[in-house]
Amino acid sequence: MPKDATSSFGEKYLGGSGGLAPQSVGAKGVETTFIAKHPSVLIFLACLAVFTIGVTILAEGFGIGVISTSFVKTLGKTLCLCLVALAMDLVWGYCGILSLGHMAFFGIGGYAIGMWLMYARTELIVLSSLANAPLPPTPDEITNGIATQIFGVVGASEFPPIWAFAHSLSLQLAAVVIVPGLLALVFGWLAFRSRVTGVYLSILTQAMTLALALYLFQNDSGLRGNNGLSGLQNLPGLDDVPQSAVSLWFFWASALALGAGYLVCTWVVSGKFGSVIRAIRDDEARVRFLGYSVETYKLFIFTLTAILAAIAGALYYPQAGIINPAEIAPIASIYLAVWVAIGGRGRLYGAVIGAAFVSLLSTWFTGGQAPDINIAGVTIQWVDWWTVLLGLSFVFVTLFAPKGIGGLFDLIPRRKGETS
Amino acid sequence: MSALLEVSGVSKSFDGFKAINNLNFSIGEAELRAVIGPNGAGKTTFMDIVTGKTRPDEGRVIWGEKSRSLLKMSESRIAQEGIGRKFQRPTIFEDQSVADNLMLALRKDRNPLKVLFFTPSEADHNRVATLAGDVGLADSLDRKAGELSHGQKQWLEIGMLLAQEPKLLLVDEPAAGMTPAEREHTTDLLVEAAKTRAVVVVEHDMEFVRRLNCRVTVLHEGSVLAEGSIDHVTSDEKVIEVYLGR
Ligand SMILES: Nc1ncnc2c1ncn2[C@@H]1O[C@H](COP(=O)(O)OP(=O)(O)O)[C@@H](O)[C@H]1O
Ligand SMILES: [Mg+2]
To answer: Which of chain B's termini has less CB crowding within 10 Å, N or C?
Structure first.
């Protein structure tokens, strides 16, 4: 401690001369706007906008057709994965909760919207096939027809209770938010209240997603067992609209959700709330003695990120066309953590970059597009070896580049006073 | 004088070992108290019990005018009641700036929603700057707390405690690792703070305690061995035997 500093503090305190506050600090940051304080938000939104417009122009739907519809879907899905990675970064990178179960919430979001898509489309099919019958069909006949169509594969012909709201788009949209939100709230309340932390919490979240996946794998789970829900790319009543257009609608919606999610997350992690959750990440016991209810903060973040993940899932699966229980296997959530680690946790754009980079690379490698390599008679087929490469990258990043890809941005000199 | 904190008949065992044994302790509203005792006497455990970190096996801990028990309250609730604590090792948030650390501690609503929508007013910024000045960190407001020296970290933590505006301040070995000059200022600060609130200082160093010039409680094997002025306790035979004689 500098000599003059030590001598001044005692005098100031003892003298009670609080008015000696340095002028430069007083009004700092009070009047600057949110965007001005967070220039990275503007850069991110600009990049996202340029990307969205670029893809739209190049796509088949309304543009020049350089990008295939299936690739538009891949890009749209990637945006959804970026959104769930944002959620992961918020809960893990900022609040220090290494949840290895957030893809369960992503999956639940997908199932919730998938139920409506499947119901509504099957209803139209059943209605048109019954239209030629001599007598107009009774409501019961219609319902039974839909149920037989949907649940025939699992040998059932009646709607399970959880499909009670499947006829209503607005109720299923509400379910996208409410079901994962409630699950996260209850699970988080039980776990955080008992002060389960660290690796034990990670294991508990793995158990949660495993239990959910195993339950859904059963034929009598009410969600078609391992068949899952399919045909989700077809929007009910819009059979005339080509997939090239539908794919762009979902692409735009995904971009919009990602942009909005980025704004929400930036807002949450900036300011005093962000300060509290980063403090919880670094030393939660100390935060308690400052008078903050750590459990409540964790529960808030856990639930908020579960909802974000569910929204991402609800946009993802209509683009994927199918959802089944394998999607919420424990490994999916581990991959999510790997993306965030590789992209750089504790910075929001790092999570986005990690998810986009790794998932697109994964598509490329596992899609058979990467050329096989022949080393000393051993052929490396990327479809199999990609996971090995990913695992090695993860180990490398953890050991040698803990800031991940996002850490590269630290090499760019910043103007003083900027915060990201 | 009505007691601000009253600890009576408190015991706590760890695996059969009685760390705190039928401890009685009380402190008034604006009082400075030193707690001394050899290593392992139970000084830190005593603070753990008062702040809710450790639950005692038996006994009562009564707080404030309304005489409420602290034993059923969570750590954060107890902190909100007005008990601030400084740990033996400096525990600050190294990844955040000095200003952020102080802002975090500033006495404000701790409700998550209130915190989410909180924007610091100019008065808040001024208060943070004043506190930083008080602990000699006025020039370091924008520095990361992790970059501070050991002594500065101790100061920052004391600044955070003052920012909480607690009614009772529990300070665990504040002078550890400080230079003589820094110790002197710590003394000044604690004496000043005790004019408006209760302060309990756990300390090893007898010289430091002497300079505090206050009532002293000597702990030994988890209970009070002697209590009184520094001269009184240092002339007590039992105290000399277990503590000073070594
Ligand atoms: N969590 C714990 N588990 C087991 N033993 C403990 C625990 N906390 C303290 N103790 C024991 O209680 C005794 C008192 O410790 P402490 O309060 O830290 O002493 P002091 O701060 O006076 O040096 C020590 O013998 C210590 O080993
Ligand atoms: Mg101790």
So the answer is: C
